[in-house]
Automatic annotation (TrEMBL):
This is Pilus assembly protein TadG. Keywords: Membrane, Transmembrane, Transmembrane helix. The lineage of its organism: Bacteria, Pseudomonadati, Pseudomonadota, Alphaproteobacteria, Hyphomicrobiales. The chain crosses the membrane at residues 20-41. Residues 149-442 form the VWFA domain. Coiled coil: none annotated. Signal peptide: none annotated.
Amino acid sequence: MLSNSSLMKRFRKDRRGNVAVIFGIMIIPVLSFAGAAIDYARASRAKATMQSVLDSVSLMVAKDLSSGLITTAQINSKAQTYFTALYTDTEAQSVSISAAYTQSSGSNGSTVQVSGSAKIQTAFMQIVGFPSLGFNANSTSTWGANLLRVALVLDNTGSMSQSGKMAALKPAAQQLVSQLSALAQNQGDVYISVVPFEVNVNVGTANSSATWLRWDQWDANNKDSWGRSYCSQSTYSWFARAECVGHGYSWSDGSPSTNKSSWNGCVADRDQSYDVSATAPSSLPTSFPANQEGNCPAAAILPLTYNWTNVNNTINAMSPNGATNQTIGLLWGWLSLLQQSPLNAPAESSNNQYQHIIILFTDGLNTADRWYGDGSSISTQVDSRMTTLCSAIKASGVVIYTVQIDTDGAGQSAVLPACASGPGNFFMLTQASQISSAFAAIGTSISQLRVSK
């Protein structure tokens, strides 16, 4: 039997229990480090969830504000409402959010910033004195950062008098003007042009001396004293000289009038292939043929302007008449956006970014131009010219929206959906009451909301 002194000596030399002692000492920091990773992962997940919700909230609030659905005083309460509906993380505690609005200045867009904070209760870090982990997130929606140049290309053909279409188009277009003009914080932030069209467009009689006009296709008289058409193909008695000759028929007025004072402002398509090109006029083929077409739009083209009274007056002056040539309207809409003859859009500063947009509204299918179609039946040749033009416009960077209303069952256009810059840019309507909502949707889209963090 060992003595007490021997046992004491053995105990002092024995090292077999050190592992347990060391483990007992290290267990707390080991658990703390492992637990910290778990707690931080939980906090990161909760923050990511909040970030995603704040992104949605800032976008929705900005859309409501830019669309006029709420005022700046309602931003914070609206953000709270959206956030409460979307944020369902049960681990987060002491959740708080706030929203702030900053008005646009110069080329900087208007913004809505939504900020949030919260915390989670820790499961492991509380052992070392950290009972909770806090986190923050924020999201900013910006709109109107790009300056806008918008061309409204509007159908003024005779069929627009039916089913209340013209009556619905005017207030819808004016509401869109109001929606877009509200994005401007400074004069010139938003410009709008108006291009009423039928087979021809009206450039205004004040341009009778313009160098970009040609008069070799013009005659002030379309019919003789007996009311008979001067066009040898009398079936198309509505043909003016440009359409008659362009279709390959003879013009029988031996002494065409050259009195420009009686010109009604109408121009026809210019020579192919300039009819689908933005080439500036510099020669006879590139110039625009004056044409005394009897169904010339009552409202003349209005170049880009921020005089909203003039824009609305032009829309009010529209009157339905004539056949459909969407190509000529689309071309003049494009030309209205360019800093060149004939419409000489206002200069653009290199310090700003610009969004160029065409909105083409029509109630029918292409039936005639200077060369093709009878003005009644669909013309695939006019569609072909328009397809080429649409491709050129989009390639130049212009965004196109197309709106077709079909109230008589003629069917969807073969060219309008493809002419639009994307599937969401084409609107197919069947009732005049739908025009307003389609234009409102376009206005919201043009606001160009984006999230920047």
